[in-house]
Amino acid sequence: MSVIAQNPIMPGFYPDPSICAVGGDYYLVNSTFAYFPGLPVMHSRDLCHWEQLGNALDRPSQLPLKGAGHSAGLFAPAIRYHEGTFYLICTNVSGGGNFLVTARNPEGPWSEPYFIRGAEGIDPCLFFDDDGKCYYIGTRPNRQGCRYNGDWYIWIQELNLERMELAGEAKDVWNGALRDVIWPEGPHLYKKDGYYYILHAEGGTGPDHAVTVCRSRNIWGPYENNPCNPILTHRHLGKDYPIRYVGHGDIIQTPRGEWYMVMLAVRPKKGYTTMGRETFLARVVWENGWPVVNPGAGMLTDQVEIDLPQWDPWKEEESFTCRSGFRNCCPASSRTYDFTREKRERLGDEFLFLRNPDRDMYSLEEGEGLRLKFGAASLKETESPSFAGIRQQHHSFQAKVCVDRDSFPQGEDCCKAGLVLLQSNEYHLRLELSGNRAEALLCEKGQDRVLGNIQMCASQGMGGTRKDEKARELTLLLRVRGLEADLGIEEEGEEKMIVRNVDISSLSTETAGGFVGCTVGMYAVEERMRADSGEGMAQNSVENSDMKRRACFRCFSYEAMGESDEERQVLA
Hints:
- By secondary structure, the chain is mainly β.
- The chain has two domains: about 20-240, Glycosyl hydrolase domain, family 43 (Tachylectin-2, Chain A), CATH 2.115.10; about 330-570, Jelly Rolls (Sandwich).
- It is about 0% helix and about 45% strand.
- It is built from two helices and 41 strands.
- β13 and β14 form a beta hairpin.
- The two termini are about 30 Å apart.
- About 50% of the residues are buried.
């Protein structure tokens, strides 16, 4: 019995995948950069369907992100299992460098980070040899001096797990498969049939990204280049091929002896990538002592047949993910979050915040909804705004959020809240409520451009008191079709569009830069007066305002468009 996986297996912003197998269970982690909590831990039994167990770094003490840009923070985690313990190693480029956390149970709790003194560079991984020794492998600048940007080396050193310290001498062992290669990174070390294999990425994270491999009889080398390198790339398929930027792979073996690789890739639209790097899957066979990816195809395919019985995480009765009241399973087409239903202490594990959010940034109140504090930081700052969102996972989707109008302070236009499609602090699309106005704004290079607005009469504005609960509600609507977006409101069942066909190609990796994909979610801000500008900002400062005031969101929904009802799953 087998199962057919549809690529990508983790759609949306799930870059730099690393995977480990423990018996018939598989665990996957991804980079999260400046988002909090960090490093989602996913679980599967068939490599096709996945559920989120939690996040490895869910405490501020584990993950300092103050002032981190969207593409700073956490780079390239690697997950490994050895003698009853899970090890997760990663780089925090914004605070502390390379670190290691451990757990007996992948659901957590995970330990406080052990920062590894002397571990230069980025993208670490662990390898456990047959004699029980543990080795650190990572990538760092050429110690003889970088001849060009990206002139880095992969290096190995023994790691003492009792002291969480590097031991012995470090050795540079490999600098890539091709001549004058740039950015050999994301190395993973394996042992098979007496050979040590280093699987790594090179060529940068853009169109020239690739997966390459080398091997040696000795862990310290010398390493032999695979004559068939790169073993996986789409660099030669042209800019119009629907899957590009393929690289950063990790491999596992199933109990049935099958081998599979996870890796990242992107699915651009007309040359623009808004969802960031996603996790894909491929079959691996071994020929003449070397791994061959998707034999007969040599590139990623839409579907992968997996020699495992199908597993349905929706039928798991004692799922960790149910503790929040929400479930995050992939793939999923649609999800609806009714924040008013019953008492919940926290949002689901799939919700993302920016940097280290305030402890009292949000609250969930039974019968009322999600209350988001009017924060001091805006989405355009590298601080911690009042924001909660999920990953964009489809090229075409519709997102809605229902807002309680009466939660806005009456007569204070400085308090704003709404729905946002967020690429970074400098590039995002907002539908914003303030006073009696709903306004659509596109932020590019950190500058807002007003696209349109709807002025509501006083009887329909914010801050009043209504006996009719439905009259208090206003639904904000975002509809995306590839690189175009519509923004509008729904009021008492009537749809009123503010702007249509907005070009959102700027919310892409190609324009905005960086390593992240778009998220979609809710935010609230209380704008401050800037004494050094002539802008007509609000006269109330945040410091003098009532910080207990919060925007109330009753419901948030995300729905993929263009799919049949049979293909849709609903998260509740």
